[in-house]
């Protein structure tokens, strides 16, 4: 099977007729832009909205009158939507439209904030976006490894949760973050092993098995948390945390430097894994075999590829990756708590689909969801008039918007979710 054939799984079908996907989305974006200009422009104040290039109110900043900014950016978003009727530059126009719509919204929110809080520190926003996206990146990469091999991985939530629990428990007992990291990887691999055995060996429905494993991880970690961690936090649930690592020279780049290159092990490892898995999938023999098994396992078997063995290895590797992602909760910021993943595994699954089963696409999608999460945190900090319950919903609303409204018609690898029985 050629590389071109294997990649066709992520290309949306070409639409014919007047109402192409680009024009449908363009109408929606234009309407949203006009609505933003009218509503956000009316609600904004004449107070200057400042976007500071630091982590506080000091230093250089991009400033604009709140009302003017809300109307201007709303109209630009509407113009981008109208330009999509040309059926050209879809991705760029969509990106410009979404960014301008968000800027219009922010001009309203920042200008309407209490005195002294009329600014958005871009360094903090970017730093928070990457931090909140880290577990999503690991989870989405775990999904890429599984689904490119033909195995649906709905168990990302359970893999993240088991990794977080194992990292906290073993890291505390060993008094070592590194030992905790290894334990987290094994915890995620344990969930993946069960997924592989039941779906590949015993042909259990992959989606159903994934849901069962999520419930198993939730119940098992919850039980052990109550019996061990809750009774003696100091002994079982105070893991050491990884500190920040700075990269010389790069850390001094404006905005991105302090946010990206004065960060933690997990972010660096996530970015490295995106690069490694992308190269591996599209530039190596392992990647060609993986994509072939995910597209047409019978043909791959005919050419000598051990289909079941490759699926086993990739599913286990996915568990290791997701387990490390789970450790980013307990070995970086927090102690373990029951159900601390809180649905992030399903958002990671959405990032996988939004990113069209590609490592780089999954990275960008995870950053999109991470920004939505960080935006909710920021708006809460400036006492936004939007109720806190709605702010907490932002990452989930962004997930629905992305998967239902923006992702378009995409096709998963052809053999995804289909058990392979060797003839």
From TrEMBL:
Keyword tags: Cell membrane, Membrane, Transmembrane, Transmembrane helix
GO molecular function annotations of the record: transmembrane transporter activity
Membrane topology: Multi-pass membrane protein
Any Gene Ontology CC annotation: plasma membrane
Subcellular localization, as worded in the UniProt entry: Cell membrane
Superkingdom: Bacteria
Alphabetical list of Pfam families matching this protein: BPD_transp_2
Ranges annotated as spanning the membrane: 25-45, 57-83, 89-110, 122-145, 151-170, 177-200, 206-225, 265-282, 315-334, 346-370, 390-408
Sections of the chain in a coiled coil: none
Alphabetized PANTHER family for the sequence: GUANOSINE ABC TRANSPORTER PERMEASE PROTEIN NUPQ, SUGAR ABC TRANSPORTER INTEGRAL MEMBRANE PROTEIN-RELATED
Protein name: ABC transporter permease
């Amino acid at each position: 099977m050629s590389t071109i054939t294997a990649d066709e799984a992520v290309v949306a079908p070409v639409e014919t007729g007047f109402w192409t996907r680009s024009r449908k989305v363009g109408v929606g974006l234009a309407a949203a832009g006009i609505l933003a200009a009218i509503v956000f422009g009316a609600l904004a104040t004449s107070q200057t909205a400042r976007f500071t290039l630091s982590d506080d109110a000091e230093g250089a900043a991009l400033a604009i009158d709140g009302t003017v900014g809300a109307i201007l950016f709303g109209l630009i978003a509407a113009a981008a939507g109208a330009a999509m009727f040309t059926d050209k530059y879809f991705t760029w126009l969509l990106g410009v439209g979404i960014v301008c719509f968000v800027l219009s919204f922010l001009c309203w929110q920042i200008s309407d904030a209490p005195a002294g809080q009329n600014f958005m520190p871009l360094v903090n926003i970017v730093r928070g976006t990457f931090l909140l996206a880290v577990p999503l990146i690991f989870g989405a990469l775990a999904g890429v490894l599984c689904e490119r091999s033909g195995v649906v991985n709905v168990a990302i939530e359970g893999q993240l949760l088991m990794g977080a629990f194992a990292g906290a428990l073993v890291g505390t007992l060993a008094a070592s973050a590194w030992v905790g990291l290894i334990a987290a990887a094994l915890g995620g691999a344990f969930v993946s092993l069960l997924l592989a055995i039941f779906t590949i060996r015993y042909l259990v429905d992959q989606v159903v098995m994934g849901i069962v494993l999520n419930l198993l991880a939730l119940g098992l970690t919850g039980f052990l948390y109550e019996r061990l961690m809750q009774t003696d936090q100091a002994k079982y649930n105070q893991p050491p945390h990884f500190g920040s690592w700075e990269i010389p020279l790069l850390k001094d780049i404006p905005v991105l430097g302090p946010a990206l290159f004065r960060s933690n092990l997990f972010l660096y490892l996530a970015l490295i894994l995106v690069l490694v898995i992308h190269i591996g999938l599209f530039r190596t023999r392992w990647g060609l075999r993986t994509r072939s098994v995910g597209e047409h396992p019978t043909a791959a078997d005919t050419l000598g590829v051990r289909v079941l063995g490759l699926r086993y290895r990739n599913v286990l590797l996915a568990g290791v990756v997701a387990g490390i992602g789970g450790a980013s909760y307990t070995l970086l910021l927090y102690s373990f708590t029951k159900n601390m993943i809180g649905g992030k595994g399903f958002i990671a699954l959405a990032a996988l689909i939004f990113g069209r089963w590609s490592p780089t696409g999954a990275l960008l999608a995870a950053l999109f969801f991470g920004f939505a999460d960080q935006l909710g945190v920021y708006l809460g900090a400036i006492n936004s008039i939007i109720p806190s319950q709605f702010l907490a919903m932002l990452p989930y609303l962004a997930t629905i918007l992305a998967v239902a409204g923006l992702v378009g018609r995409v096709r998963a690898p052809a053999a995804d979710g289909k058990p392979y029985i060797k003839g």
